[in-house]
Amino acid sequence: MSNKVRMVGTAWLRKALLTAACVLASLSAAGTVHAERLKDLASFQGMRENQLVGYGLVVGLDGSGDQTTQTPFTVQSVVSMLQQLGVNLPSSTSGLQLKNVAAVMVTASLPAFAQPGQTMPVTVSSIGNAKSLSGGTLVLTPLKGADGQIYAMAQGNLVVGGVGAAAAGSRVQINHLSVGLISNGATVERAVPSALTQGDSISLELNEGDFTTASRVVDAVNKRYGENTAVALDARVIRVRAPISSTDRVSFLGALQGIDVTPAIVRAKVILNARTGSVVMNQAVTLDNCAVSHGNLTVVISADNSVSQPNAFAGGQTAATQNAQITINREPGKVTLLKGGPALSDVVKALNSIGASPQDLLVILQAMKASGALHADLEVI
Fold this sequence. Notes:
By secondary structure, this protein is an alpha+beta fold. Helices cover 26% and strands 35% of the residues.
């Protein structure tokens, strides 16, 4: 064999080995990228937040409270509160004008394992016709759970993320003024019993039910702690044996959440917000070649007010007239060919080429889904 042939064979072998090494490295990197902590894929059964709600009053408003003639429950609430504080009012309260008071609903989420004395934020929302809650103070309000028991008490000064001003019939407003937030505004008074520390096993609940992901979680847990430690009950719930001792169980659960598991293929999903026009999609969304025709129709109605003034000696009366003008602007629709692509960047480029507004994309994406060109689940929120 000549040296030239030997050199060519050696170069080909090196190239093949280098290619194989790159493929193995890419596969290894892909596996590392797709692996996620069990903490991000599942949660413990019974470890959840509990919704709390209460009815209260916000006082100290600068004349922007409820109009008591239209919201009688505000007057009734104030009278009841004052009676509890030892203030006796006359039997007829129809003449009360409470411009600085607003009836509100107070909502909060009680965290898992919350203990008495801990604080949490609350959201205060007007249920009457108050113009603004800015500068108001929430009076002590009990927060109840679904079982009717009181779990927290809320009180404090509101922070409203908006501003408004009105004068001479004109009004300017930025953001929402009838909802406020009180940071650390509620104090927990009752703890919710948890079954997580009871029994000889705990249950893991996957965030999304999937048989493949459930079996991979079982394999990863059994590989770490031994056979029969984890058993899948269905596509979502996995039962895991846990230590009886509370100290050992806490350490065990902490280590369990840190196990790396490679989930199944992420389901393609597009989230559509019909109120704001926002469109969000994940990496698994794909698009086939399709043709889209998009056009805009604009209707403009304008009014011109004029006054008809008769002559001085005509004996007529001055009359106001209104002339309306209606204009319809119709832009021609153009058929656009969208080239499909397996990557999210290709889908975004295709949608941007249409030149449609986010509100128009809501309708276009639904039509693409109906035609079979868009491979994703549409969820409208």
